[in-house]
Structure formats: C-alpha cells, structure tokens
Amino acid sequence: MTAFEAVIGLEVHVELLTQTKLFCSCSTDFGAAPNTQVCPICLGLPGGNTPRLNKKAVAYAIKTALALNCQVAQEITFDRKNYFYADLPNGYQITQHFHPMGKKGFLPVNVAEKTKNIGIHQVHLEEDAGKMFHVGDILSSPFSRVDFNRASVPLVEIVTEPDLRTAEEARLFLQKLRNTLLYIGISDCKMEEGSLRCDANISLRPLGSKELGVKTELKNMNSFRAVYRGIEYEIERQTGILQEGGTVIPETRHWDEEIGATKSMREKLSESYRYFPDPVLLPLKTDTKWLEEILYSIPELPDSRYKRFTEDYGLPPYDAEVLTSSRDLADYYEQALQTYPEHKNLSNWIMSELMGLLNANNMEITACKVEPPELGDLLKLIDQGTISGKIAKTVFEEMFTTGEKPEKIIREKGLTQISDEETLLKIVDTVVTAHPGSVEDYHNGKNKALGFLVGQVMKETKGQANPRLVNKLLQKKLSN
Ligand SMILES: [Zn+2]
C-alpha cells in the first residue's frame, strides 16, 4: 500500500482591533444589533461618499508583516476582487492582490522539540464581508439573513506556504501565530467570536514525491480543536479515496463539529477571481520614519522572551514555555520578580497556585485581583518564616477572592506561623505521649514515623507550626 504525506497550508483571517472600519467611521464593536453599524460607504450605496483609508489598520497590517519576518511593500495599493455573494454589498471586496503588504516571511514553531520555520507566503490587508445567518443547516437552508455590521471591518489575511505536514503541526502553528498577534496587540484573536478564522488547504501525495496533489479547502473551524480534528478527518478521508484508486475532487468542504466530519459545499471550478486595481484608492508610499515608528512599537516577541527566561532566569524549558505563552502572563511574572527575585520559586507558584485558581474560575490573568508585587510579598513571608507554605496557600486563595494584601489577611485571621520553641515543645510532648507506637517505630529505624509525628503537631496547630522547627524539636525529643 502506498504511504501518503499530507501537504497543508493555512489561510488565517484576523480582525484588527481598530475602533472604526477600513474606509468609513462606522464602529467595529462586536455584538451590536444587526445592521446598526453601517453607512452608505460600507453598504456600497450610490451617493458621492469617498472611502477614507484607516491609517491604524495599515499600521497594524505592517506590524503583522514585520512580526512575521516579511519583506514589507514600499508602496501600498488596493485591488478589487470581483464576485457576487449576498454578504458583499459592493459586488467586490477590497484587498491587496497585486502587491501584498508583506511577502516571504516565516514563523518558527516548536514541533517535537525541534524548531521548524513555517513559511509565510504573504500578509495582506483587506475588508471583511457581512455575516450570513442561515436558517437551519447551511446546505439546505430555506432562507438566510445578512448582517452588514461586519462589512468592511479591517482584516489581515496571513497565508502560509504549504509547509505543514500534520494536523498537530497546523494546530501548533496556529497557536504560535495567535500568541504572536496577541503580543503585538493587533487583534483580540477570539476564535469563538470570529475575530480569528482559519481555512486549511489540504492535499496528499505519495511519500517522497515533490509534486502537489489535488487539494480541498476546509472551512468553518472555530477552535484549535476543530482545526486539529477537521484536518485529521480530511487527511483520513483523502487517504481512503487514494488507497482505493480514486481521485480527490477539488472542492470547498465545511467542517461540521457536531457530527465530526467534513461535508462538501461546492466544487472549486477555478482559482481565478477577477481582480482590478482599485481606481479610487490611490497608491500610498510608506515613509521610512513611519515604518521605523511601527517597528519600534513591536514588543519583545515570544521566542526572544522564552530565550531570556531560560538563559537569564535559568528557568526550565517547560516553565519558560508556559509563562511566555501569553504576553500578560509573562508580564505578570516579570513584575512579580521585581519584589521577589527567586526565579524558579516564583514560577512554581504562578504555574500551580495562580494558574490553578485562574483555570478553576475560568478567568484570564488580566482579571486577577492579586497584584504581582503582592504575590512577591506573600512568598517573602514564607521565606522569612512568618507563615508556612501550607498557610500561604490559604492566604493566597483569600487574596485571589478579595484582592486584600497578604499581611492584612494574616493579621486579621491570626495565621502567623508558630516559631516559639516553648509553645511548640508542649505540643510535641503531648503528641509523643499520645502515639507510643510511632515512637517505637521511629526507634526501630522507621523514618516514616517521624513524618507522621510532625504531621500530628501540624494538625494540632492547624498548620501554623513552623515545620522545620517541629522536625528539629521532635528529633531532639526522640533521641533523649
Ligand atoms: Zn460605514
């Protein structure tokens, strides 16, 4: 049986975080009542309004191209992509066909502990279409509604080279891309709200062959999981066809999350749309000073931050990967370091306690009530012996819920660690008298017994005893 290799390229559409649309001053806010954020320009109505290009959208597209290591165009031009569909009021979409904003870039992705550079074919700026609402199933819908609030919202489209080979690589690439776009702040990248949408071109070829097979385009994948499952399904489907000697039909297919399968939408007749340079939007030269400003506005990106976290802070790769997986989380870590410069200890706390509570409450780090320096203060109190690590977890939960400072919670709840020898000795005496069996075990060389006795003292003091001191006092008592 022939072994096949999948060849996958992604087309990712990202809605830009601008206040207004690409050529008019209509709002881009998500979730408004249908057709309330529209005007004659974005509705394509006749009447002498001239489109005015949104400068911020252009800057965001250039920023994206630079962050993805692309060559940036010297001149910005726009073209009309002509086709008919009910969500496109002008009968054409304004895009950049002949001279995209960025070309020949790449994004490094970690695949199975190796770095693989995924080629970026191009990055271009374009306007979005309206949104269709189909009644019932998309393929048998009796009628559809259309909301033009989304018409002409600025998008960047990022087109990869066909460098991806598996569903997992595609998922990893998309995560890395999303993280990078969030770092540079051009989009909120919410897949569930459609501000990041991903289509995949998938074909198979016999392993070792250089030629490309017939591809299908897969749409409607609204989560990382859907991207993974959709591509996985499509690879399996095409493998089945080819192994039985059949041919793959070039078509657009729709991922159906509920049934977990792709369905044919329409056959791809040809790739050629009609494009014309836009006669109204004149070419715009990018001036060097402006480009430099955009370049300097790009923050440190995930890879460089990862490198610094492992090399300068000495964090294990896993910690660095988790902490730099979001810019906000990495910022939080570095701000907390200012008050508590114990790199690994701080990382442990953020990854277990803080992220544990965030996940349990389905919260983002930006909504966290604990300010980074206060987490640092809490950890200092453990190191100074004021509270035990166990009590600190209780205090932290309280900080997380109320946003109170650690000192205040400790004072008000009387949680200070007991480090007074005399007080502890009394409890040690009681515990030793109450558990003669464990004392005997200890004398017979069973070290576990000591742990049990320490545990009993901790229990008596509701976790407030200084465990190191209890250990010392117990050993001393038992050696008498
Ligand atoms: Zn408008």
- What's the multimeric state? single chain
**C-alpha termini separation:** 77 Å
How many helical elements? Answer: 16
Determine the fraction of residues in helical runs and give it as a percent range: 40-55%
**Total number of strands:** 16
Strand order within the widest beta sheet: 2-6-7-10-1-11-12-13-14
Q: How would a crystallographer describe the biggest sheet?
A: 9 strands, mixed
- Strand share of the residues? 15-25%
In round numbers, the mean pLDDT is: 91
The secondary structure category is alpha+beta
Question: What is the count of distinct domains?
Answer: 3
**Which parts are unreliable, with pLDDT below 50 for 5 consecutive residues or more?**
none
Ligand list? zinc ion
Radius of gyration from the CA trace?
30 Å
Can you tell me the overall shape? elongated
